[in-house]
Amino acid sequence: MAQAPRIAAIQDVSGFGRCSMTVILPVLAAMGGQCCPLLTAWLSAHTAFPPSRHATFLDLTGQMEQTALHWAELGVTFDAIYSGFLGSEAQIGLIEEFYHRFRRNDTLVLVDPVMGDHGKPYRTYTPAMCARMGELAAQADVITPNLTEAALLLGEDYADVPRDEVGLRDWLTRLSLDGRRSVVLTGVSLREGTIGAGCFERGTGEICFPQARREPAQFPGTGDLFAGVLLGSLLRGEPLGQAAQRAADFVQKCTARTLQLGTPVLEGVEFEPLLGELMR
Known about the structure:
Elements: E1 6-14, H1 20-30, E2 34-43, E3 57-59, H2 61-74, E4 80-83, H3 89-102, E5 108-111, E6 116-117, E7 120-121, H4 127-137, E8 142-143, H5 147-154, H6 165-175, E9 182-188, E10 194-200, E11 207-208, E12 211-213, H7 222-235, H8 240-261
Parallel strand pairs: 1-2, 1-4, 4-5, 5-8, 8-9
Antiparallel strand pairs: 2-3, 6-7, 9-10, 10-11, 10-12
């Protein structure tokens, strides 16, 4: 019997609102992985909620290096390293140091280059920080940008994002850095009523477009849910296209269920009762 794959998850945690660590940890656990949180920040609720004078934010940059040093002292090893939203350039540098300390030849590194959405970078992402995120993503085995982030990584205008398969194939190939990394481009829709991803598999050069039914709502945290299922599937040995299809289908099913329940959009998708479907 094989030991559970161990994943270093470098993310923030929000006390309320399903996103980042509160999504990733249960998903990876359900899929048989041991998720080890390396926290970047603590928030009382995720940032899509309206601003409040009572909202709390604790920057944990100062704890990240100490945590890594302690793990190294304990002899911890990782089968995967997964990073998402980051709060500063300093955190990007700390993740690069983490790679030097913990990355082995067989360690799968996934970078979700969270920088923006709907054609615009997030307000905390300066051009300099976007450039540093590009440098971090260049070291990954797999990246999972959305269309906005893909444009930022390629230095393209969002208005020029391709909408047909020919153009998407070109962007996927460019994002792969000449085949050096796999790419899962999220938010891709090739036909009316569907949404999913475009995938470039670095081992084979194969490109595919897994799609699922589009639901009439956009919930925060679905990108984290998608990437968590994708990583869990890859650690089981599934091919990239199959893993992306599993992730797209699971997000669609969770979204449809959440809409049926009438759960407020800002709370995120109710994935918890469906976690059993991710188990072997």
